[in-house]
Amino acid sequence: MLIWFTLLAGLALLPALLRTFKPYFFQDCVYMFHALGFGIRLIKYKRRSPFYSIVDCFLDAAKKHPHKTFVHFEGKTYTYSDVERESNKVANALRSVAALKEGDTVALFLGNEPCFIWTWLGLAKLGCPAALLNFNIRSRSLLHCFSCCGANVLIAAADLRDAVEEILPALKEKGITVYLLSDEHSTDGIQSINQKIAEASDKPLSPSLRSNVNIKTTALYIYTSGTTGLPKAAYVTHERVWAASFIQGVSGLTSEDVFYINLPLYHSAGFLIGLVGSIERGNTVVLRRKFSASQFWDDCRKYNITGMQYIGETLRYLCNTPTKENDRDHKVRIAIGNGVRADVWKEFLDRFGHIHVRELYAATEGNVGFVNYTDKVGAIGRINILSKIFFPFALIKFDIEKEEPVRNSQGLCIPAQRGEVGLLVGQITKRTPFVGYAGNKQQTEKKRLGDVFEKGDLYFNSGDLLRIDHDNFIYFQDRVGDTFRWKGENVATTEVSDILTTVDCIEEANVYGVKVEGHEGRIGMAAVTLREGREFDCVAAFSVLANYLPVYARPRFIRIQNSLEMTGTFKMKKVKLVEEGFDPTLIQDRLYFLDLTRKKYIPLTREIFNSIMSQDIKL
């Protein structure tokens, strides 16, 4: 009897003991249960014949609840059946006008609006991969992004006509067909397609039109800046589409939730986690053209939003808005995103109430990812039993100066210890592949790291430095290589350097990112040398950068140097420049600040520096 009493008492105390000594045990169990369920689903989809894609999932949702609202946009409401019919019209029109067939790649140059959704769905119903072009890019970058995906058709929004016309001669030379989503257009080489879509049949299309699509087929091309050069088109297979779509479910969202998408749909976050995730869940989406801090919570209250997306900067912007009495008057319970600082995270929760922040880590082209399912402030994920089964990864010692992994006498990499910062690498296997970049074998190979722990093994080089603490939480530390992140966008320093050197007065340019107190990521700065006998042209430099780069990629600080310091292998040194930053009292070189209101660079004075640091000048 005493034994049974002791046993029952022990069982009664077990939850309290677990909370004390294993505080995340139950959360680990719940997460692993859901993750395992989604993993089993993915395996079933891989084996299912005919293949069941996210488009089939959408079609099932449209049959199950045709009158349920799928998208709210600027006062208009579109049901699942509305979007189903519109996507059918797009698909039938493009079959007729463009003779599109399975496997043809089509580039989409569209902003955040409902036609983006049904145009993509229409293409997917035809088995056509879509290349999602960043609507901020122009000229050389735009032409490059279009060309590397192998598309023969470009579909653009009416308000992006000027950007298309700028590269139209090159497109015509390549025999590219250009369609504008407008009623009429007079430019030779551009066809208006709205009327054809309006006249097209809204009858469903036969699945046989995409009969050869399978789990390994390319579904999308999503662009990433990577470490060097112009944006790269990452292959996104149907397997990766499915895997990304499960993030909403793993984070706790259901078909009853209303999900707020204010990130661009050309990003993997907005498109895969936001839009495709909502299709997988069968929930309702509130879509905005762009993020607005001042209208964010009004939208949440108006549409009863329960799930939201963020990047680190968006949460900071929300925290910077004037305090209101109704700050906690909303129904948001889950926020999914990445890149938020711990102090902003805490401030966000203190001000706007208890919201489950699901900070995650992933890369569009990567083969490893994490999600923080515990509400642990500051962490990007947590290691559990399933982590290394789903994503076999490691942190290895990394030499920041040499920008390469540290290797032992056998030429193998050295694992980073607990609590030590290391480079994240993910093992490349059949279950965790790295497909690479379209039309860029060189950059694809640069992301493959061999002989990591054994001769002949192969890992994906994330280019990110992480740290794992003794409680199994993972923390992001920094990004290595030639990329920095600003305003939620990756900025490739090589591309910016190339454009800077087209300014008549500039001989060489070394671009890097520097930290600014109170801001996420790193802001652009460039050390430049001038051509002999020339002075820095403040207006011309702004003009060239404005013509070729979006605002977030333009260097806000310029440092004039007599020569640029090189390594023994003729690589530009950045570490010291990054450490020195842009403080005019510490730097003897001339410094300039990009004044967007005056549309030119101006000398960076101590007064301007102080205003930046006190955040009186907004960056």
From TrEMBL:
<dbReference type="GO" id="GO:0005886">
    <property type="term" value="C:plasma membrane"/>
</dbReference>
<dbReference type="Pfam" id="PF00501">
    <property type="entry name" value="AMP-binding"/>
</dbReference>
<feature type="signal peptide">
    <location>
        <begin position="1"/>
        <end position="20"/>
    </location>
</feature>
<dbReference type="InterPro" id="IPR025110">
    <property type="entry name" value="AMP-bd_C"/>
</dbReference>
<keyword id="KW-0443">Lipid metabolism</keyword>
<dbReference type="InterPro" id="IPR020845">
    <property type="entry name" value="AMP-binding_CS"/>
</dbReference>
<keyword id="KW-0732">Signal</keyword>
<feature type="domain" description="AMP-dependent synthetase/ligase">
    <location>
        <begin position="60"/>
        <end position="382"/>
    </location>
</feature>
<keyword id="KW-0813">Transport</keyword>
<comment type="similarity">
    <text>Belongs to the ATP-dependent AMP-binding enzyme family.</text>
</comment>
<protein>
    <recommendedName>
        <fullName>long-chain-fatty-acid--CoA ligase</fullName>
        <ecNumber>6.2.1.3</ecNumber>
    </recommendedName>
</protein>
<keyword id="KW-1003">Cell membrane</keyword>
<dbReference type="GO" id="GO:0044539">
    <property type="term" value="P:long-chain fatty acid import into cell"/>
</dbReference>
<feature type="domain" description="AMP-binding enzyme C-terminal">
    <location>
        <begin position="495"/>
        <end position="571"/>
    </location>
</feature>
<dbReference type="GO" id="GO:0005789">
    <property type="term" value="C:endoplasmic reticulum membrane"/>
</dbReference>
<dbReference type="GO" id="GO:0004467">
    <property type="term" value="F:long-chain fatty acid-CoA ligase activity"/>
</dbReference>
<dbReference type="InterPro" id="IPR042099">
    <property type="entry name" value="ANL_N_sf"/>
</dbReference>
<keyword id="KW-0812">Transmembrane</keyword>
<keyword id="KW-0436">Ligase</keyword>
<dbReference type="InterPro" id="IPR000873">
    <property type="entry name" value="AMP-dep_synth/lig_dom"/>
</dbReference>
<keyword id="KW-0472">Membrane</keyword>
<dbReference type="GO" id="GO:0005324">
    <property type="term" value="F:long-chain fatty acid transmembrane transporter activity"/>
</dbReference>
<keyword id="KW-0276">Fatty acid metabolism</keyword>
<dbReference type="GO" id="GO:0000166">
    <property type="term" value="F:nucleotide binding"/>
</dbReference>
<dbReference type="Pfam" id="PF13193">
    <property type="entry name" value="AMP-binding_C"/>
</dbReference>
<dbReference type="InterPro" id="IPR045851">
    <property type="entry name" value="AMP-bd_C_sf"/>
</dbReference>
<keyword id="KW-0445">Lipid transport</keyword>
<keyword id="KW-0547">Nucleotide-binding</keyword>
<keyword id="KW-1133">Transmembrane helix</keyword>
